Amino acid sequence: MDPDAAKTTRESLDLAFRISNIMDTGLDRQVLSVLIALCDFGLNPEALAAVVKELTRECSSSLPTPSALSSVP
Fold it and tell me: pLDDT 10s digit of each residue in the chain, 73 long?
């Protein structure tokens, strides 16, 4: 990749990451980069967003609550 293209890519990812933080998505830079790459490969962004939401919801529901942790011997 030529230096100008690499710089543009990096700047685009930086901007997308700042927007992601403003929107409080909880996505880190690496995950965001993968999601952008998947969209670039032609995956449907709306379907991808639905998968991310579902995985986030499943992960948060499977985490123990603080009260459950306090009852563990």
Answer: 788 988 999 999 999 999 999 999 989 999 999 999 999 999 999 999 999 999 988 888 876 655 554 555 5
Domain limits at 14?
A: 3-61
Those residues whose C-beta lies under 8 Å from the C-beta of residue 9, and which sit 6 or more positions away, are 1
Count the domains in the chain.
1
Burial of 35 (0-12, 13-18, 19+ CB in 10 A): buried
DSSP 3-state assignment of 1? Answer: coil
Single out the residue of 51, 53, 72 nearest to residue 61, CA to CA.
53
